[in-house]
Write a structure and sequence with these properties.
The protein is an alpha/beta fold and 204 residues long. Helix content is 21%, strand content 24%.
Length: 204
Amino acid sequence: MVGEGDFSFSLCLAQSFSSASNIVATSLNPYVMYEKAKSNLEGLEKLGAHLLFGVDATKMKLHTDLKMRKFDRIIYNFPHAGFHGKEESRIMINTYYICCHPILCYSMHRDLVHGFFRNASGMLRGNGEIHVNHKTKAPFSDWNLEELASQNSLVLFECVACKREDYPGYNNKRGAGSRCDKPFPLGACSTFKFRFSPTGTNIL
């Protein structure tokens, strides 16, 4: 698990399997910042999970506890670069041009996902999969996950509806600012599933 909030998603999976011995749950935050995180972490520890804090999704393959590991599944729920403007802002989504001159801007969301794919693609076992849960309506659809994946030798092989009721106990979190412990509206969203492929051609 990459980019966990209060670790409720990892705990949900662990409880469904009655074990977390094969789960590595990571968070960018180096400390617990959510009301229910402590109890969720305690539950994961009892079930045998490996918990890591301060893990940057765009550099995770270099992390001391991850660089020698390979995974069957790498899951990132609703990647988001933080609240630095309106969601539909082109600065948040992409590089743009004014008078034919490129304006250097962060392309923050796409840069985050691209960096994640670049790292995760080298951390998979032979038949491993990368799952990204993501909103499917604009402006989120403008992130174009398939394009970013293909740039990192990943192909989309399945896309299914993501339903919160399939994950009892999961609480999605905003993850930044004074309202970090509040949920955000999910709306229409899907689970995008990718596999490594040198050709980078989607097979859907």
